[in-house]
Amino acid sequence: MTKEEDAIRQHGRCCRCRKRLKRNPRFNIAITNRKATWDHPVSGEILHSGPTDLALAFLCDRCADKNRDPKWVIAFGENLKIIYHSIKDLEEVPLRKIASGINTTGMPIGR
Ligand SMILES: [Zn+2]
Predict the structure, then answer these.
(1) In a domain, 106, yes or no
(2) Is 96 among the domain residues?
(3) Which of 13, 42, 66, 95 has the maximal Cβ count within 10 Å?
(4) How far, in Å, CA of 81 to CA of 55, rounded?
């Protein structure tokens, strides 16, 4: 997800503290245990196995380092417009359905 990553880096805000991600050194993606009702971005785009339809949150380094759980997740609208959904509004996926070895919240994937 290169264009998508750019869009989030340029225009996105931390899904926990709302800080702009633009000058954030790392790109932290958290896989949530909530079902995405959109096509992008979703867990299938970054995982090689496991569920493909989990919503993703993007966190600033500070929130990622403190393992803070995201409050929002990001979905793309037309032309990669960023739409924030509150985690509370999304259906929870039972943990047993999520492949073992995947940390469901707050797990930064460093780059
Ligand atoms: Zn943050």
Answers:
(1) no
(2) no
(3) 42
(4) 16
Q: How many domains does the chain have?
A: 1
- Predicted TM-score of the model (pTM): 0.85
Question: pLDDT tens string for the chain (111 positions)?
Answer: 689 999 999 999 999 999 999 999 999 999 999 999 999 999 999 888 888 999 999 999 999 999 999 999 999 999 999 999 999 999 999 877 665 545 555 455 543
CA of 93 to the centre of ligand 1 (A): 24
- Is residue 110 in some structural domain? no
Measured in degrees and rounded to the nearest 5, phi and psi for residue 42 equal -140, 170
Cα–ligand 1 centroid distance for 28 (angstroms): 10
**Separation of 38 CA from ligand 1 center, angstroms?**
23
| CB-count exposure of residue 52 (10 Å: 0-12, 13-18, 19+) | exposed
d(CA 106, ligand 1 centre) in Å: 11
Give the domain range for residue 25: 2-84
